[in-house]
Amino acid sequence: MQLGLIPGAGGTQRLPRLIGAQAALDLILTGKSLKAKKALKLGVVDEVVPAPILLQVACRRALEMADGKLVIDRSRGLSSVAKSRSFKDILRGLSDQKAWAELALEDNPVGRKVLFDQAKKELLKKTKGKYPAPEKALEVIKTGLDKGFQAGLEAEAQAFGELVVSDVSKRLVEIFFATTALKKDNGTKNPDVKPRPVTKLGMVGGGLMGGGIAYVASALQGVPVRLKDRDDAGVGRALAYVRGLYDDRVRRKSLTWRERDKQLALVTATTDSSGFKNAEVVIEAVFEDLKLKHQVLREIETVGRPDVIFASNTSSLPITKIAEASRHPETVIGMHYFSPVHKMPLLEIITHPGTADWVTATCVEVGKKQGKTVIVVNDGVGFYTSRILAPYLNEAAFLLAEGADIAELDRALTEFGFPVGPITLLDEVGIDVAAKVSKIMHDAYGDRMLAPATTDVLVADGRLGRKAKKGFYTYESGKKKEVDPTIYALLKGVERKRIDRPELAERCVLQMVNEAVRCLGEGILRSPRDGDIGAIFGLGFPPFLGGPFRYAEAQGIGRTLQRLEHYQERHGVRYTPAPLLAEFVKTGKRFY
């Protein structure tokens, strides 16, 4: 399902018969993987054994099958150890409410219709009709249950053939191969460069970012983490946040409390620099202030190893400027995580011209061990992800200033395929943070990055977004409710003007695509592949469209240039096409 396909070789027909339609739908429609114990509980497998004796038991079962001691239940389509059911077992089955519910829903036409109608309704809420594979899977499973196993197999083969040549599947397969290639990439031009071992990680700054990084380092990378914050209260909040993430896994039964305690013991905290002496890598996630980052850098170089890697989690400040305070700038690098760290899959690593290859390779390896998809980009204001996000959000602000409706604007971009709309995202990021980053971008790139004055007006009114429970939307118990109607007065006009959703979406998306092409042309990106992966995994660009570069190619590079020129005539310099785009149209080149 992750590749835009459905299970083949009878997978859509055998699994529902094996574990029931409801459980099978949950697995097939999501493409989720199962842990061994869960698979056993569901009935996907018949037996689970410890890994050291897997081969031994498998051989024994094969011999038992050959001797007739192990029978195959043809109705289930999977081998199982023959067991006689006692009268007590039968009575227990009759009293199982879940079993009766499954019988009512799955084993009669009316119940099945209710089950599949509800499944399709929930499915469309998530896919918005953009991903055809889950819908096809639903149809194929239902066909098999309604018309029999053979009819189901024929429907599965037909659907698989249609999907495998679809544009959506092509884009998702391309993403799969791109992420697979990144797993083998050390982030440098020299594939022979080896990462150095990292046995301890230092973390300066115990906020949500620092706590999140400490969690993935201990839970996934499996190394001790020394976390520093400015006072005892900050240290306490950081440790509580990390423990909360572990506790959540215990509640979800993906971790035992013993495993939690063992991994949690890897995280220690302090208000001074003790414990940083032996850390091979120290990451800072302090406030976005260059002087403060210089201060932290000098302190770490004073107490740390001579070859300690100093990695900044900055989202906008150039790494070159941070490295100016270093005694050995070749060990300074950027490691830009995304919030929340434990959920967001991307890590953007930023190298400045003096960063040593072994430093890059080491940080790439750290990111991979933390479960991240890693892209390496060259230094520049905003790097890649923050830089292409800025004009996207700026355009949303310009549309509001022109009279666009807030809810309509968000809806236009979620219908396009983004997980959330740009206005919701502004509230999440923080309107004050967005305004500050926008000024940094404007200073670096000129008037094409100029944001409308409305953001400053909103900040002056105390509308900072979700964190202040006051932004474009209203919030109740931490949850977004509805558009705050009083905000329109600050946007100079309560009356909103109708702008078609396709135009709302196109204007915002073109800004992101155009800036991505600029990043490629200026050498910020190493390849279009990295640009597409960064936008999808870091910013939520719709996967079924393949990323900004795949999207531009699908639309036609010439048409993309034409639409930018169209909006440039209407709205001015901020739509000036990237030089590389014009060059590709002239020479007939492609991104891929």
Short précis:
The protein is α/β, with parallel strands linked by helices and 592 residues long.
CATH class designation of the largest domain = Alpha Beta
Which spans of ≥5 residues are poorly predicted at pLDDT below 50?
74-91, 93-97
Q: Which sequence of strands runs across the widest sheet?
A: 5-4-3-6-7-8-9-10
Radius of gyration: 27 Å
Oligomerization category of the chains in this entry: single chain
β-sheet strand percentage: 5-15%
Whole-number mean pLDDT: 89
Question: Sheet with the most strands?
Answer: 8 strands, mixed
Class by alpha and beta content: alpha/beta
Taken together, the total number of domains comes to 4
Amino-to-carboxy terminus distance: 25 Å
Give the second-level CATH assignment, the architecture of the largest domain. 3-Layer(aba) Sandwich
The count of helical stretches stands at 27
What characteristic shape results from the CA principal axes? globular
Query: Which homologous superfamily in CATH is the superfamily of the largest domain?
Result: NAD(P)-binding Rossmann-like Domain
How many DSSP E strands? 12
